[in-house]
Amino acid sequence: MRPWLSRLTMLCVSVLLLAGLVLSRPDDSSRSAQRLSVDHRRFDLRQHLDPEVHMNISEIIRRWGYPAEEHEVVTEDGYILTVNRIPQGLRRAAGVRPVVYLQHGLLAAGSNWITNPPATGLGYVLADAGYDVWLGNSRGNTWSRKHQSLRPDQDEYWRFSHDEMALKDLPTAVDYILKVTGQEQIYYIGHSQGTTIGFMAFSTLPELASKVKLFVALAPVATVEFTESPMTKLSGLPEFLIWEVFGRKDFLPQSHMIEWFAEHVCAKILLKELCGNLFFILCGFDEKNLNVSRTPVYTTHCPAGTSVQNMVHWAQAVHAGRLMAFDFGTAGNMKHYNQSTPPEYRVQDMKVPTALFSGGQDTLADPKDVAILLTQVSNLVFHRHIDHWDHLDFIWGLDAPEQMFPYILKLLQQHH
Prior knowledge:
Layout: H1 3-24, H2 29-36, H3 57-63, E1 69-74, E2 79-86, E3 99-103, H4 122-128, E4 132-135, E5 146-147, H5 162-181, E6 186-191, H6 193-204, H7 206-209, E7 212-218, H8 239-246, E8 250-251, H9 256-266, H10 272-280, H11 295-301, E9 306-307, H12 308-320, H13 329-337, E10 354-359, H14 367-376, E11 380-386, H15 393-396, H16 400-403, H17 405-414
Parallel strand pairs: 3-4, 3-6, 6-7, 7-10, 10-11
Antiparallel strand pairs: 1-2, 2-4, 2-5, 8-9
Helix pairs in contact: 5-6, 8-12, 9-11
């Protein structure tokens, strides 16, 4: 099949899949009407395109007056990851600043923590509170696409899932940060897949776990047995069909098409809320708790892409109902794991002090899955359930300064 035709086919199937997700999404008429309501006061009436649409992570940070650094970290298997840093806040404080490492979720990037203005962006809030803030970028996303010997146009480059993010990317990044800062431990804050990576890594790698003072899990995901997110509709497809439709390379990378969509569709006043519904339908959102005027920035920087293999891994997780390594099939598992089935990650083996923040309206980190997780975390030091929060409120919620930030800051101070 010609490349352009293959891409067109993939796009058509994706659109049909998305249409099915939207049409099959459980919703009552009153909620639909509420989501379609337009609060014109929330919109930027100037219609000027936000300059952050075309900025990288460091440029966005500097735009608000904060210092920014970019570091490249090389994993044991040759992936070159970009790790962004906000070394301090607007008020330059002397002395050692404790390190906080922020890890984004599925299809996302380190930009998640800084695409809200400083008052509602966790990256800025932590920097102003006296922390040395580092923003991770998982292999294969917009900012971590380099490799020592492979290219993104090769299938081999994309042969990874969140197994490698947990067991290779995270340990390498943490060791690099500790070396640069001269510190012995970090605070780790993850969102969604960022928490999954933490559960996998800290339960499997005791040496890495010993370097973490506190694990703060936002919208925590260990199992996805009960998830009702439209994203999990993908798991309904036979695995061979997922490979056939989406190929064996990247899934939803940042592209000129997305950038055009953000600039020419999301930036129009009357279409902002519609655009928000189309994009955020995959993860769920509450438009009343979202800065809708920044939708063009959100949609330009996210989705930031991952591997198709990673999406297949998540589809496997829905079926398995457990936190398992990637299933290569019987023969492939024997080759990779020396056993016929993929190994299971045992969250209960994790000894790191852990704080959980969950949302009552979260369809990805479903409350029923979180309830199971609560019984497995052996060193649970805190749990806050925010009943009206959805999956994306943890990174972009307007009321985060009241609902979440004070609790995180207090937890960090208590585990100093």
